[in-house]
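Review form for a predicted model. The reviewer records the input and the model, then writes brief findings.
Reviewer: anonymous (R2)
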Amino acid sequence: MDWTPPSKTTATVTTTSTPTTAPVPTDIAEGTNIKCAEYYDVQKGDYCNNLVLKFGISLDDFLFLNSGVNQNCTNLYADESYCVAPVGPINEYPGHPGYIPPTSSVPDVPYSNLPKATYTPPPITGLPQHLPLAHGTRSDCFAYANGADLDVDITYTYYKSVCDALAHGWGVTLEQLQNWNPSLDTSSEDCAPEEGYRYCMKGYASTVTGGPPPPTQTPSSVSSGSTPSSTQLPIRDGTITDCNKYEAVVSPMTCASVLKENGITIAQFYQWNPEVGEQCTNLWLGYRYCISGPTASSTSTTTSPTNGPQPPGPTQAGEPDNCNKWHLVESGDNCYSVAQEAGITLDQFYK
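Model under review:
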């Protein structure tokens, strides 16, 4: 079988010649550039958009080559000739955006002589704004919700109040809800959060992921007055090291129940456990707290007013001497319920 080599092929190179200037027609429109490769005599019914499509030119370039036509193309006249193709690259036309004169040069400017930037970024807007906490609401909660978002309709439901529905929906007890938000009277059928405030809906607990960091203090630092073991809860960070007695705080315990059970004042509890705050708003469950300091007595001091009724039981430190009415706190009481029963505001009660 004879083999025949393929014939040699040569690539064909197509060269594109630069357009030349077309003769200027006698009916050229006013303002039309005479450095033009092609003119078109506009007919009745023509408009700018079909011209740029027909001749493959952008509207901006068409208007540049025909400066007599306004931006809206409302003065395109029939029986007049307009330029529809430039001679060579249109950006080489003087006055066209991006045109650089052939003889121009950019001088070198030392970096030290360059102007400083004066741009000032605009202020960031649109960020979410946190509403203020409701009166007495804890400041160390795991989750908060705005009062407006907690407005639920309990019509035709078995819930006793909006608070009852919220507690059920958030998986918490009414006692927890009121402990975290003293302004909510969960015993009332009218209990409901107010718009314009934030409320604590989830407090920290030892099982909550992302909760407070574990305390640096360990049971080994407990004094001889207590009997620590490996099964005890950790001591809250910041608690005094020479404490005589600790108590584990778990659900559903509250500050009020701890104070009442151990016969101590909130001032003493704060002195021994500074991290809880002066008003005990940062009491975390799942930790042990000092309930008997090295020099403090476990018995509350009763201060009797010189004039007026005698208190029905032990009083906390700082009570006024001229009080004319007392309330014995019982289980289930809170600041809001005491103030409401006495017909005073929370601000007056705190004073």
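Findings: Confidence is low (pLDDT under 50) at residues 206-231, 296-305.
Further findings: The chain has four domains: 36-92, 143-202, 210-300, 307-351.
Recommendation: see findings above.
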